[in-house]
Amino acid sequence: MTARLLDGKAIGAGLRAALGARVAGLGFRPGLRVVRVGDDLASVVYVRSKDRAAKEAGFDSETILLPDDVPESGLLDVVRRLNADPAVDGILVQLPLPKHIDPQRVLEAVDPAKDVDGFHPVNAGRLAAGLPGLVPCTPKGVMHLLAEAGVALPGARAVVLGRSAIVGRPMAALLLAADATVTMLHSRSRDIAEECRRAEVLVAAVGREGMVNGDWIAPGAVVVDVGINRRADGKLAGDVEFEAARARAGWITPVPGGVGPMTIACLLENTLEAALARRGAIALQPNGGVAEEHATPEQSYGHGPGLA
Ligand SMILES: NC(=O)C1=CN([C@@H]2O[C@H](COP(=O)(O)OP(=O)(O)OC[C@H]3O[C@@H](n4cnc5c(N)ncnc54)[C@H](OP(=O)(O)O)[C@@H]3O)[C@@H](O)[C@H]2O)C=CC1
Ligand SMILES: Nc1nc(=O)c2c([nH]1)NC[C@@H]1CN(c3ccc(C(=O)N[C@@H](CCC(=O)O)C(=O)O)cc3)C=[N+]21
Carries keyword Metal-binding (predicted)? Predict the structure, then answer.
């Protein structure tokens, strides 16, 4: 079998176009502010794509640049000013931050109602508890991809490789909310290859190029590669051995062009949701509203082990 490609570039573009159409009908422009500290090369690239995507979809987007040596107190002042500014609906402080700044203190300074990254502990706690809140963009984007592929999650064995606060943990929470049977793997896990071989849905978010061997993939499995690794030749590659995995999987995301573009589209989605929720026009949904799309009881895996 050769897997079908889960084309995040195209699906993300479709989501951004739909958001743009909604924004055009609002009568106001949802405000997004991205704060970037210093000149980390990857951050420069990502922040530029976020700003461009936001403007294209009709958002009022501005990037705030601060020097590498800005004191933590200076960054906290900027965050507080954005919290207080009624024109601002979404605030994102790009990570990583320079070493003299405690990222946790900064993330906790963001108003949870404007926390479009979903990184504030209030939003993380709400997600863990199944309460309404803002959900991190990358795992939310993965849920959109799974919906697009028609993956039936209830009862499915889902394996999440990586347990970071920004990807692995919220990913596992969303899959669990969608009634998957979730296993989390991390650097202390034993038998990682065997655990992956049992996965009907495998999400890799480690940051080690090609760590997931092609022969860890169950025939027909859905493989989502969150990893973004810069190779020696300058090209980007995921955490999954792509060609070998594609020969076995049912669906697979490429890198680039898979999860990354969905992260950006979901940032816009979160900014629109935050803007509407702040104005009392909508209530935020549990699990970012993405889990229930999957919980249709009439769909089920029913393939038994291996999916073949
Ligand atoms: N596409 C996108 O939009 C995004 C992509 N990324 C990419 O995703 C990847 C992961 O990012 P992030 O979650 O922030 O990374 P972190 O470094 O914060 O977390 C990595 C996780 O992988 C686990 N891990 C490390 N080594 C191993 C190993 N040998 N076996 C099993 N588990 C291991 C760690 O375990 P432990 O907890 O035990 O240390 C940790 O839980 C990176 O490549 C990053 O660039 C990140 C964000 C967005
Ligand atoms: N506060 C904060 N929020 C984040 O969401 C956040 C962050 N900090 N720091 C860094 C990570 C990483 N991240 C990506 C976003 C888009 C792509 C993306 O669009 N990738 C393209 C390729 C881009 C390229 O060519 O370099 C793709 O995969 O096709 C990747 C990675 C968001 N992050």
Answer: no
**Does 252 count as an annotated binding residue?**
no
Please name which of 154, 132, 171 lies closest in space to residue 287, comparing C-alpha atoms. 132
Q: What share of the chain is helix, strand, coil (3-state, %, to 5)?
A: 40, 15, 45
Does 228 count as an annotated binding residue? yes
**Quick check: CB of 285 below 6 Å from ligand 1?**
no
117 is catalytic: yes
At the topology level, CATH places domain 135-259 in Rossmann fold (3.40.50)
> Under CATH, to which class is 27-111 assigned?
alpha beta
- State whether the beta carbon of 168 lies less than 6 angstroms from ligand 1: yes
Mutate to test the pocket of ligand 1, among 195, 211, 216, 226 (most ligand atoms within 8 A of CB): 226
Helix (H) or strand (E) holding 169, with range, is: helix 168-177
Q: How many CB atoms lie within 10 A of CB 31?
A: 22
Query: Which is nearest to 264 in space by CA: 97, 117, 60?
Result: 117
**Which distant-in-sequence residues (6+ apart) come within 8 Å of 136 by Cβ?**
117, 118, 119, 127, 166, 167, 170
Residues 185-203 have pLDDT tens digits of 999 999 999 999 999 999 9
Confidence (pTM): 0.95
Indicate where the chain has its CATH 3.40.50.10860 domain(s): 27-111
Return the best residue to mutate from 95, 143, 187 for the ligand 1 pocket (most ligand atoms within 8 A of CB).
Answer: 187
pLDDT bin (cut points 50, 70, 90) of residue 53 is: very high
Residue intervals in the chain for CATH 3.40.50.720: 135-259
Ligand that lies nearest to the alpha carbon of residue 145, given by its number in the listed order: 1
